[in-house]
Amino acid sequence: MGKKKLLVVEDDKGLQKQLRWSFDGYEVIVAEDRESALAQLHRHRPAVVTLDLGLPPDPDGATEGLATLRQILAEAPGTKVIVLSGNQERAHALKAIGMGAYDFHQKPFDADTLGLVVARAFYLHAMQEENQRMLQIGADSPLSRIVTRDPAMLRLCRSVEKLAPSSATVMLLGDSGSGKELFARGLHDLSARHEKRFVAINCAAIPADLLESELFGHEKGAFTGAGQQTLGKIEMAQGGTFFLDEIGDMAMALQAKLLRFVQERVIERIGGRSEIAIDARIVCATHQDLPQLVREGRFREDLYYRLSEVVLAIPPLRERVGDAVLLAHHFKHQASLMERRSVPAFTEDAVLAIEQYGWPGNVRELENCIRRAVIMSEGPQISARDLGLAGAPQSDAPVNLRQVRDAAEYKVMVTALARTNGSIVKAAELLGVSRPTLYDLMHHHGIRISP
Ligand SMILES: Nc1ncnc2c1ncn2[C@@H]1O[C@H](COP(=O)(O)OP(=O)(O)OP(=O)(O)O)[C@@H](O)[C@H]1O
For a substitution probing ligand 1, which of 183, 318, 321, 364 has the most ligand atoms within 8 Å of its CB? Predict the structure, then answer.
């Protein structure tokens, strides 16, 4: 990754040099007046700008500096502008803050303090960009309802995007509440069938003797109580997507009838005499181990193979990196919006408890837990106790970014050195860093190669 870009708008050559020198950790871009500042802004899109208010043609006033500020913020509102002003210019500096500058700093500047202000501005900018990106993801994709940052889940989302336009029958495997229906809907929403219906049926929720009629429909008088012709769910999905949830719970007798539909794409209503052709994409799901059910003779092997042209396995929430807390924030916002109340914050122990808890009921359990806490919470904060998770084991795992990075850096370096049998040249190549950088890192981590 390249260095972060810092734009220094300063007409004094001496100060330009000093600032460049102070900020050698950044890629410093210099501009000496409004015009060049805006040109550099267009070209480099820096996250942070230091701006001298006294720019030519008004080096003793602030009109040109303030005009530059206004234009920078109009063009790139997220830019963090730090105003540098002389002692006498406090009023101007405050005016700049009122206009949207991030901070001000008095000249002559103190490199350490200004360094901190600049570093913090970069940090804040990155956070805000990330938030923006998250909102964006949420806004414009049919998979937007799937909130995740976990690499395995993101790969699944890509697979869904690729599979959606095809007619392949998809089997979704995953624990209860892990989002199987959400993925099934994603497949539908991204397909050419999205204007037709998505019809779901949960085989485990309907008594076995009613399931057949629910699936295939019936003609009037087909059985006692069949007062009128009723369409089955399969027929309702004509042109669209038919989602069979908890397929592993279906009785063997019904499996045979379902197989006929899956193979021949025709159904007969109960009591009916004619075949009805159905064009529906089939997606099914289960939390059960279907191959095991096949081995036990409880699930038809032929049906299993027909239904599992493509299998997608959804990881349980506890295996997703960082998702529990991400989803908790998401559901907290959603619930607050629904309940028309201000969004409470999670206390530190709440965040830790959310991370630590195993979530056997997966996302559904998390969603219910957060919704309940938002409704019941009285103050501006939600604690682990409010979540009903107080007493969850505390984590020793480091959450400090530097600690985590250090640990990862150490591990990968030792691995590279082991793999290359201690060859610094080869290890540096493998790691994609220069030799001096590797030496620095080894020194930092106290790694020595024995001669
Ligand atoms: N990644 C996710 N992002 C946002 N919401 C999610 C996510 N995964 C699941 N949910 C929400 O969690 C709840 C449960 O999801 P869903 O019904 O898709 O799970 P399921 O695996 O089909 O459950 P079951 O096996 O019990 O039918 C739903 O309200 C769904 O919107």
Answer: 364
The reported pLDDT for the residue numbered 336 is 86
In the prediction, which pLDDT does 163 show?
Answer: 94
Ligand 1 centroid to 333 CA: how many Å?
A: 17
For the CA of 148, the closest atom of ligand 1 is 1
Could you check whether the bond before residue 57 is cis, i.e. omega within 30 degrees of 0? yes
User: What pLDDT shows up at residue 263?
Assistant: 95
Query: Is 174 found in the same domain as 302?
Result: yes
112 lies in the same domain as 213: no
- Please enumerate in sequence order all residues whose Cβ is within 8 A of that of 435, keeping only pairs 6 or more positions apart, or say none: 424, 425, 428
What is the interface pTM, i.e. ipTM, of the complex? 0.98
Alpha carbon of 401 to ligand 1 centroid (Å):
30
Residues 194 and 214 in one domain: yes
List the domain range (segments joined by +) for residue 289. Answer: 151-313
Residue 173 forms beta bridges with which residues?
286, 313
**Amino acid 232: pLDDT:** 93
Assigned domain for 144 exists: no
Of the candidates 313, 339, 356, which is a domain's last residue? 313
- Indicate if 63 and 183 belong to the same structural domain: no
**Ligand 1 centroid, distance to 178 Cα (angstroms):** 5
pLDDT tens per residue, range 236-285 = 999 999 999 999 999 999 999 999 999 999 999 999 889 999 999 999 99
pTM for this one?
A: 0.62
d(CA 269, CA 218): 5
CA of 180 to the centre of ligand 1 (A): 6
User: Which among 387, 416, 437 is the end of a domain?
Assistant: 387
Residues 269 and 370 in one domain: no
In a domain, 145, yes or no: no
In contact, 72 and 102? CB cutoff 8 Å: no
- Ligand 1: centre distance to CA 321 (Å): 17
State whether 31 and 90 are in the same domain.
yes
d(Cα 96, Cα 90) in Å, to the nearest integer? 10
pLDDT at site 380? 78
Q: Do 29 and 116 sit in the same domain of this protein?
A: yes
Residue located nearest, by CA, to atom 8 of ligand 1: 179
Q: Tell me, yes or no, whether 11 and 115 share the same domain.
A: yes
Mutate to test the pocket of ligand 1, among 148, 153, 154, 181 (most ligand atoms within 8 A of CB): 181
Quick: pLDDT tens for 118-127.
998 998 888 7
Give residue 85's pLDDT: 84
From atom 9 of ligand 1, which residue's Cα is the shortest distance away? 179
Smallest CA-to-CA distance from 341 within 373, 385, 375 is with 375
- Domain annotation covers residue 141: no
- Ligand 1 lining (C-beta closer than 6 Å): 145-148, 174, 176-182, 245, 287, 327, 363-364, 367
CATH code assigned at 354? 1.10.8.60
Give every residue of the chain whose pLDDT is below 70, as ranges: 1, 87, 131-142, 391-400, 449-451
Q: How many domains does the chain have?
A: 4
Q: What is the pLDDT of residue 98?
A: 83
Closest ligand 1 atom to residue 330 Cα is: 4
The full length of the chain comes to 451
Give the residue carrying structure tokens 């001298």.
Answer: 52
In sequence order, what are the beta bridge partners of 84? Answer: 52, 105
